[in-house]
Amino acid sequence: MCGRFALANSSQLSLRFDVDATGENLTSRYNVAPSQQIPVIVGSPHGRALRWMRWGYPPARRAGEENAPPPINARAETLLDRPLFRQAVTSRRCLIPADGFYEWQAVPGTRQRQPYFIRLKTGTLFAFAGVFAESRDLEGHPQPGCAIITTTPNELVAPLHHRMPAILERRWEVDWLDPNLTEGSAILGLLHGYPAEEMEAFPVSNLVSAAYNEGPALIRPYAPASPPVQAALFT
After folding, report:
1. What are the extents of the domains in the chain?
2. Which amino acids are annotated catalytic?
3. What is the predicted pLDDT for the residue at 232?
4. Cβ(154)–Cβ(195) under 8 Å?
């Protein structure tokens, strides 16, 4: 899954994704958490547009589930099978900018979990594949929400988690936002684990485990006292 990510290079968002961010309150964020408002890029008749959305896909509420949290992830393998996401995957796709995400690995012999920061080796911005839906809050105000699509992990992420966010290769970002691309198998063909050789992962401070903590210290390499198994894989 993907439950926390960073958008530290927010000042580069406009240039990297060819989108007008004039007047937007874009700040560096190192600990983006579910339910927060995040910048999302969508296609429009006039080109790409930046919108703010809640990280959490508006669910189809059923009796007894009124207080259930909205899903933050959507599995690539079942996108076309789940009624909640079926229409979104053909008509409401989006790019969710980030420059890294976090996963936690259990520390053998303890109850502790060591967080890792995972990013491109270049340290540059990339895009999670996302879907979104229009919704309104209890007062009737627009409150669109989005979910990050997840897929099977590559060789780098697999020791940390059995899922990873679907990071789009840059050449496929145009296709992902193309409203004329509606064929299910072609859409799903864009979703897979990003090439492991182009990524890196390293342990970071456990401060990231609390959503209220922020700042560049969260993504700095951290040397744990007792490295988890497989830590040597990440350089």
Report:
1. 5-233
2. 2, 103
3. 36
4. yes
Q: Across the 235 residues of the chain, what is the mean pLDDT of every consecutive 10-residue run?
A: 93 95 93 97 90 91 64 96 93 97 92 95 98 84 92 96 96 95 94 95 96 96 62 38
DSSP 102-119: EEEEEPTTSS-EEEEEEE
Q: How far apart are CA 199 and CA 234, in angstroms?
A: 10
Residue of 88, 38, 31, 37 whose CA lies nearest to 59: 88
Q: Reduced to 3 states, what is the DSSP secondary structure of residue 72?
A: coil
What dihedral angle (degrees, nearest 10) is formed by the CA atoms of 151, 155, 161, 166? -30
E strands within the chain? Answer: 5-7, 29-32, 37-44, 47-55, 73-75, 93-98, 100-106, 113-120, 126-133, 145-151, 164-165, 167-168, 199-203
pLDDT of amino acid 62: 52
What is the per-residue pLDDT for 138? 72
Q: What sign results for the dihedral spanned by CA atoms 43, 46, 48, 51? A: negative
* pLDDT given for residue 139 in this prediction: 75
Nearest CA among 215, 187, 174, 10 for reference residue 97:
10
CA-CA distance, 128 to 189, in Å (whole number)?
15
Q: Which residues contact 184 (CB under 8 A, 6 or more apart)?
A: 80, 89, 90
Contacts of 46 by beta carbon, 8 Å cutoff, 6+ apart? none
pLDDT at residue 45, as a whole number: 80
Q: Which residues contact 215 (CB under 8 A, 6 or more apart)?
A: 30
CATH class of 5-233: alpha beta
pTM above 0.70, yes or no: yes
